[in-house]
Amino acid sequence: MSSSNLSSLTPDTFILVGIPGMEQLHVWISIPFCCAYVAALLSNGVLLLTIWAERSLHQPMYLFLAMLAVADLALSTTVVPKMLALFWFRAREISFGACLTQMFFLHFTTIAESKILLAMAFDRFVAVCFPLRYGAVLTPSAVAKTGLAALLRGFCVIFPCVFLLRRLPFCGHTVVLHTYCEHMGIARLACADISANVWYGLALPFSVGLLDLALIAVSYGFILRALSGLPSRPARRKALHTCGSHVCVLLLFYAPVVFAALTQRFGRSIPPELRILLANLYVLFPPLLNPVVYGMRTQQIRDAVLKVFIRP
What we know:
Elements: H1 3-8, E1 13-16, H2 26-53, H3 60-89, E2 93-95, H4 96-129, H5 134-137, H6 140-166, E3 175-176, H7 183-187, H8 195-228, H9 233-266, H10 272-297, H11 299-310
Parallel strand pairs: 1-3
Antiparallel strand pairs: 1-2
Helix pairs in contact: 2-3, 2-10, 2-11, 3-4, 3-10, 4-6, 4-8, 4-9, 6-8, 8-9, 9-10
């Protein structure tokens, strides 16, 4: 197909439906979504300001946590404002370029966040298994390079999806049965073979995520082995408590990501409104709950928040 014919089959805009079958409830659904988004902005903002203002938190563990907060804010802000505009003002149209941009940042942030969670697991591995070498291994330079590697990997994995979508003709199919643009949701509108999109969209991001999960599991295997050899029960409890926060964050991130990805590709028997509703929760609740989990379970963060925002 010539480039002129292909461009003529590329729509100027897509139409976001929202949650199919629940259009009459969009305004009511938007209320908890808006509250969760505002709470996520506030809690992550407080966490970032606390880490920035309190020098005692300028350590690798908390710097990785700050990276996670930035990724969470980027993830929710990529989706939620447009979603609320759809629910409140029936702003259903989104340009082709804006749709691809939203798709890119949604998946890019997810891949980058997976890398950050792996870095946090490595941080706990070094802290528990090689405490005397912690400062030498996790230097400020190493932390900065890890953040840069997360960005570069996310870009390299997701950017080809933009080209895979731009090459497709859509033949006037512009209705997206979702509240936001994601790779396979757009690809399925095409009137051409999308095998490359299916295989790339499933194989590479999944292999990257599974590799991260495998390395995290190996790290925690070594951590548990090291903890079992500690003679002091209080030291063992303290290490488990710190690692427990990270495990909670891992579950909050990977469980909905895996569920959303699998149901998008294989969950034909799941009602679309339920699948889309859960996909929306994925971009809202991890950003909301991650700072709460660390804030409630980490004494240093609780003390720093009180020092920065409450105590004179």
